[in-house]
Model the fold of this input.
Amino acid sequence: MSNRCPFWKDYDSVGGSISYCELAAFNRPVNPAFLSQIGCTPEKRKECLGTMELNIGTGAVPAPTTPPVVCDPPPIVAKNAVGLAEKKAATNSPALQLLAILAGAYIAMGAVLSTVVTSDLPTYIGDGLSRLVGGATFSLGLVLVIMGGAELFTGNNLMVTGLLEKKVTVKQVLSNWGWVYLFNFVGSILIAVLFLYSGIWKANDCSIGLKALGTASAKTSLVWSEAFFRGILCNWLVCLAVWLSLAAKDAFSKIAGIMLPITAFVTMGFEHSIANMYFIPMGIFLKNQEILQPFLTPGFGENLNWAGFFGNLIPVTLGNIIGGVLFVAIFYWNAYLRPATNKLSETTETVR
Done:
């Protein structure tokens, strides 16, 4: 091995024969697979070490290092989702309500940021890229929810994994969803009111306010079926963002895993119930502001009222539930945690 190994250095010097392992000398990290590939078995390392000690009195050989795990494999993520469901089910008032208010506020803050950033952006880069930038900035909301710790209704649809594993009850899931949904609304409205009285929407010749009005009007103009199916697609991606964050091992990876699906759903124009708890009320608050009237066409925002708000919120919420529960929670539970697929999950974990 000593003669064949590309990292073995063996030569004669004035002081005598010198032998050493280049990998160990430069403290190069090596994984077991690499050592096996070059024939560096424990027996060969012992032989090399003996040769070095004989020639120069001391020596070192490379110690196998296991590469760091950058993310958990899907079967582990599925188990993590069940554990998270148990924790959420055990969170009681008033902590649950406070965390739900924060989540509604965080999503609304992401919506505010997206509105401000894209208020005049299409003029410079076009609609498609403007949507992309808007999606990236909107993802601030879920980053704050997950990294800061808060309770978001759409993300909590993943609690169904715990229900399927019989770790939580139907009553616990519905109770969590009910309280979180209600107080997400409180947090969203809070930010809408604060943003209204901040006057920031008047900036840049009211372009921010007009952008907010346009967004709200477009949402209330959707027919029931469009809102419903956009809601399904939206929460499929939102719950995948939560799923990816559970897989990640460090903060940067978690943020990247959150941002990609959220950017996608906003760019494609899908509908998020909690975000709409900010977007539409914000439009209702701004609709009758005197300073904006010269910019509005007659009959603008015909459906932009509280009836239009609930006409959007109901189908979007139902769609969100189906998207998160069916396409993420139920599908992944069946793939990795269902008793009949336990062998597959264990095999996948071993391979990874």
About this structure: The chain has a mean pLDDT of 92. The CA atoms of residues 79 and 243 lie 11 Å apart.
